[in-house]
Specification:
23% strand, 6 helices, five-stranded mixed beta sheet, two-stranded antiparallel sheet, 202 residues, alpha+beta
Length: 202
């Protein structure tokens, strides 16, 4: 089981894993996941799930999205050994608002935001640009593979989304995942082949 899990992580961060995307309401997904999250983070950490109203649908692999959130939650728990608060928040981000965020590499479009924030120890600024690299870990030897966040990065990228971190030592960490809004019918239009040009008769 450990070997199979390791292979899945390797495939995910190399973006070669076969995803089974489906249209999801992330509010429902997170509600279903909240009981597991509470067990994972333990009694000393308070979990708060805050949903936006009329959340847009996204198209993603359910189990892989759950893995992303679980990974964030486990990292948050480890960063709060004496307890704290974990907040999972969702929101619709319209294209105009996305443009104003000025996130590097993220084009202006409609997204659904999933933010996982904690009140833990935070991540030093000098390593924040390394945390999504494979085999990089801030945990003690034997306590982390260094594949968790690189797996997250691979899953999010393969889904067409973006992930960013905002952290300050002593003040906690927030991971923000932006997934493209799913518009029913848009894919069908994109996949419609343009008619071949008529051949001229000599």
């Amino acid at each position: 089981n450990r070997a199979a899990s390791l292979v899945r992580q390797l495939l995910a961060f190399s973006r070669r894993q076969t995803l089974r995307p489906q249209v999801l309401d992330l509010g429902d997904v997170l509600n279903d996941l909240s009981m597991l999250l509470r067990r994972l983070i333990g009694a000393k950490v308070k979990l708060d799930v805050v949903h936006a109203r009329d959340l847009w649908p996204v198209k993603a692999d359910l189990s892989q999205f759950e893995q992303v959130v679980i990974n964030f939650a486990v990292n948050a728990r480890d960063a709060m050994p004496d307890g704290g608060a974990l907040t999972v928040r969702t929101a619709n981000i319209a294209a105009l608002d996305a443009a104003q965020l000025k996130h590097k590499g993220m084009p202006a479009a409609d997204y659904v935001l999933v933010e996982v924030s904690d009140t833990g120890t935070g991540i030093p600024l000098d390593i924040q640009d390394k945390i999504f690299e494979p085999f990089f870990s801030t945990k003690d030897i034997g306590k982390g593979t260094g594949l968790g966040l690189s797996t997250v990065y691979g899953i999010v990228k393969q889904t067409g989304g973006f992930v960013y971190v905002d952290s300050e030592p002593g003040r906690g960490t927030a991971f923000r995942v932006y997934l493209p809004r799913h518009v029913p019918g848009a894919e069908a239009e994109d996949n419609t082949a343009a008619p071949a040009p008529a051949k001229s008769v000599a």
